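[Q] Does anyone have a clean structure-token version of this?
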Amino acid sequence: MSPAATVRAYVPASRRTPRPTGPFRRRRAPRHRARVLRSLRSAAPALLAYLVVRLVGLAVLARLAHAKGHGVWPTLATSWDSNWYLGIADHGYTDELGTRVNANNLAFFPLYPLLVKAFAAVTPGSRASVALVLSVVCSFAAAWGVHAVGERLHGRRVGTLLAVLWGAFPVAVVQWMGYTESLFTALAAWSLYAVLTGRWLAAGALACLAGLARPTGVALAVAVTLAALLSCRRRHGGPRAPALVGAALAPLGWLGFVGWVGARVGRVDGYFAVQRLWKNEWDGGRATVLELRQQLFYEPRPQLFVLAVSACLVLAVVMYVLCLADRQPLPLLVFTGVLLLVVLGSAGVYFPRARFLLPGFPLLLPLALALARARRRLTVAVVLAGATLLSAWLGAHMLLVWPGPP
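[A] Here you go.
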């Protein structure tokens, strides 16, 4: 099957016909609301299961934090990158490149701190509290979008399992921290869903916003733009404008911020110069391979969390091969493929790599399909319970024992 046909296979027939005009357009808003409500009702079991999974993780974290004399709120809302985003929300960005290592906040994308600042201006509580609540709300929007993609491709059961597995990811505790992963995953999931349903303007707009949320927004921009252009290629006489506009919108967020950073520091490669100050350059995966080899074969006493990160990276590659074998829709394969290239090809800090892969939920589709086809419900229950407990324990270990960033 050609790439264009792959994209077309997941665009409903209703979206390949001209939209109604005249008085029929008045019914569009009620139909849209009804469609959203149907989707929410369908996703309700998945969202409830997701809530249970994350509450288990929160309960384990709270119990261990109390035993160590730590507070849960500071751990979730004001640690590591959370402080960088709160600093941007409070004081904005620096206006120079400088020479200090790991000290330039232009490495952090602006959407999350801008939302924190905007909501904090109209709600009570500190900006740290607003940031944490925003991440939790975005995590449910993300779980809903993950379910929608899984349901679209393989039915409601697979969508529910996919959302639960995403919530039980080994480092899923980050989903309820003052970090950008939940926001980015929500934008990515709904953008990919819009692609699968032929809503090109929505797909491009969401991809544009995702490009303002994280550096890996480039992966979503490539996926949406390629799918939209392939859609235009297969159209013969049909309307191409929505797909072309969507293709143009998708990379604007990422390109806009990178260009703005360059203008702010006075050099074309300004953003990449900032990344070099953070020791974060793309080397094709050489540093990742060397670190994997060191941790898996030569380190006499490897640290537990680093081993968990290494396992996540290896399993991500295996799952991508399974995604290729399952012939997932092209937009999903491109998104996860570019995401893997960015994460594994970086020479930056090794420890956060598992967290960087958190938005790559399509990598979990083969496992969700396998569980959906399992004949015994006990098997599904054991796998999900084990994943939930492992995620809860590893999340607590990552935040309370591991001395580095999550």
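[Q] Thanks! Anything notable?
[A] Residues 28-68 form the longest helix (41 residues).
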